Amino acid sequence: MGWSEEYMGYTNADNPFGDNNLLGTFKWQKALVKKGIEHLSEKELKERNKLIKEENRRELQKVKQLRLEREHENPCVSWSCCRERKRESILKHGQSKKTTFICTRPN
């Protein structure tokens, strides 16, 4: 899970941080203790993280799908469309004020 040596430009042996496990995945022991999962093996932790990532990916796909469905139901749900409608409304309002101003101007 850690970054590769070629990406970072450092190795475990040669880095300015003095970290012998720089390219490895960081494991925050206090967080594991807080969650009550510090007893799990490395393999079990990796499997647990994999399941959590997969669940998050599925949830994100579901949210994206719901957003697309809402946009199909009401095409002006997207931000760009709302901005465009607001701009058109402002332009129409400005034009009607000019027209009103010109029409109500005394001779």
TrEMBL record:
The keyword Coiled coil applies. GO terms for biological process: mRNA cis splicing, via spliceosome; negative regulation of innate immune response. Residues 42-69 form a coiled coil. Keywords: Coiled coil. GO terms for cellular component: cytoplasm; spliceosomal complex. The keyword Protease does not apply. This is Cactin-like.
